[in-house]
Amino acid sequence: MDGFSEGREVKVMAQSFWDRITDMSPRPLYIILILAIAFPFISPLRIPISIADYTKAAYNFVESLPPGSIVLSPNVIEASCWGECGYAWIATWEHFFQKDLKIVAISLYKDGPLLCERVIDVLKSRGVNVEYGVNYVNLGLVPGFNSAIAAMVEPPDGLHRLVKTDYFGNSINTLPLMSEIKCIEQVDLICSFTSGWGEDWVGLAVIPYGAKYIYSCIGVMQPTLVNQYSLKLCIGGLAGLKGGAEYELMMGNPSTGVKSMDAISTTHALVIIFIVVGNIAMVFTRKKGD
Amino acid sequence: MVATTIGPWIGLFFTWAIYSYLLYKENIAFRFAEHTFIGVAAGINFVMAMKTLQGNTLQPILNGELIYAIGLILGIIILLRYIKPIKFASNWSMAFYVGTTLGLTISRLPITSIIVPLKSFFLPPNTLDNIVLIAGFFTVLSYFIFGRLPNKQVEQARDYVNRAGRLFLMVTLGAMFGASLLGRFAMVIERIYFTMRTLGLAA
C-alpha cells in the first residue's frame, strides 16, 4: 500500500469511528454506568469526603441541645427523593435519639408519613431506642403547605388546633410527648427534610418567631442553602446525599451514605468522560455550515 | 446475605421492570410496573386524603368543634364544579383558598425570598468571591431591564454589561442543570445498592 492510500484509509477509519460514537445507542452507556455504580459497593474506593461548614454548624447545634429538647421535624418530600435525602434523614434522627431529643414528625406531602416509619424501622434495626408517644410522634399528613405551617406554629396552641390525631389514628391528647408541645414556642429546633428549598419555614417560623432551623435538601438546592446559611436564616443544613455522608462521618458512624459517595464519584467521573468524548465526536463529525 | 422476605424481591422486580424500558425497549414487564405504579400512587393519595379528613376534620366535628365544618363545606363546594347549573359556586372555595394563600405569601415570604437575600449582594468587594457575586448580580439585573437609555453611547455600554449578564445566567443555569442531572444519580445509586443488597452482593 502506498503512502497516499494508507493515509486516506486512516482518515476514513477515524471518520467512521467518531460517526459511530455520535450514532451509538445509549444502552451500552447505561450498562457501563450501572457497573460504575456497583463497583464501589463491592470494592470501596474510600475517597476522602470534605465536610461543609453548614453541615458542621448543623451537627454542632444539635450537639449543644440539652437532653429532652423538642425537635419539630417536618418533611416535604416524595419517595423518589429517598436516594438523595434518606441518608441525611436517618443520620440526623439517629443523632437526635442518641442525644435523647424528642422528635415530632409532621408531613406536608403524602409520602412523608410512610417515609418517617421507614426511618424508624432502620433505626430500630440498628438498636436505637424509640418509644412511640414518649420520644417520637408521627403526626401524619397535614395538607396546605404554607397555610398549614402558618397555622401550626401559631401560639398559643396552633399545633393542637391543626392536628387532632396522629398517623395511626390516636388522639394526640393521649400521647405524652404532645402535652409538651403546643406551638412553635416549645420547639427547640426545626429540622426539615425537603425536596425544594426551606424558605417556607424561614418566612413563617424563623423570621416571625426566631425559631432555630436546620434543613436537608436535595443537592440541586445547595446554593440556596449556602445563601440562607450565610445570611443566618438557618443554623446549618445538609445538601443531598453528600450532606448525609458528611453527617454520618461527623457522628463517627459511616454508613450507607458514605458508601454511596464512592459511587457518586465514579458516576460523576464517568459522566465527565462521556461529555468530553461526546463533544470531541461532535467536533470531528461537524460538517461545514453546521 | 440474600433477602429472605418477599418485600425486597417485589421491589427488585418493579425496579428492573421500569429500568427495562431504558436497557431494552417497551415491554410487558415495564407496562405492568408502570400501571401498577400509577394505581398504587392514586390509591395512596386517596387513602392519605381520607385518613387526614377523618382524623383532623370529621372527628373534631363529631366532638362538637363545628368550626371545622367550614373547611369541610368549602371542600365539598369545590366538587360542585362538576354540576353545570351550580358550577359557579366552586369559585367561592377557590377564592377563599387562593386569597388565604396569597395573603400569607404576600405578607411573609417576600421578606425571605427577596428582601433578605438582597443583603447578600451588598458586600465589600475585597475578595474574588464577593466581586464575582456583585458583578453577577448587577449585570444580570441589567439584562432584565429593557427601558431606553438617554443616548447611543450609554446603550452600547449597556450592551456589554448585558452580555456579561447573559454569560452569568448561562453559567448559573448550566450549573443548576448539571447539579440536577447528577443529583438524579443519587436515586439510581440507591436502587442499584438496594438491588445488590437484595441479591446478597453488598452488605
Short description:
The complex is a heterodimer of chains A (290) and B (203). Chain A has 290 residues and is of the alpha/beta class.
Question: Main attributes?
Answer:
heterodimer; A: 290 residues; alpha/beta; Rossmann fold; six-stranded parallel beta sheet; 11 helices; 12% strand; elongated; disordered N terminus; B: 203 residues; mainly alpha; 3 domains; 77% helix
Textual characterization of the structure:
The complex is a heterodimer of chains A (290) and B (203). Chain A contains 11 helices and 6 strands. Chain A has 290 residues and is α/β, with parallel strands linked by helices. Chain A has 2 domains: 3-43 and 262-289; 53-254, Rossmann fold (3-Layer(aba) Sandwich), CATH 3.40.50. A 6-stranded parallel beta sheet of chain A has the order 3-2-1-4-5-6, sandwiched between helices. In chain A, helix 5 links the parallel strand 2 and strand 3 (136-141). Chain B is extended and about 70 Å long. Chain B has 3 domains: 1-65, no CATH class; 67-116, no CATH class; 123-203. Classes of the chains: A alpha/beta (290), B mainly alpha (203). At the A-B interface, helix 2, helix 4, helix 6, helix 8 and helix 9 of A face helix 2, helix 4 and helix 6 of B.
Order of helices and strands of chain B: HHHHHH
Q: Report the count of strand segments of chain A.
A: 6
Q: Strand pairing plus helix content of chain A: what structural class?
A: alpha/beta
- Shape descriptor of chain B reads extended
Q: Determine the number of helices of chain B (DSSP H or I, runs of at least 4 residues).
A: 6
Q: Return the average pLDDT of chain A rounded to an integer.
A: 90
Q: What's the number of domains of chain A?
A: 2
Biggest sheet descriptor of chain A: 6 strands, parallel
**Total separate domains of chain B:** 3
**CATH fold description of the largest domain in chain A:** Rossmann fold
CATH class of the largest domain in chain A: Alpha Beta
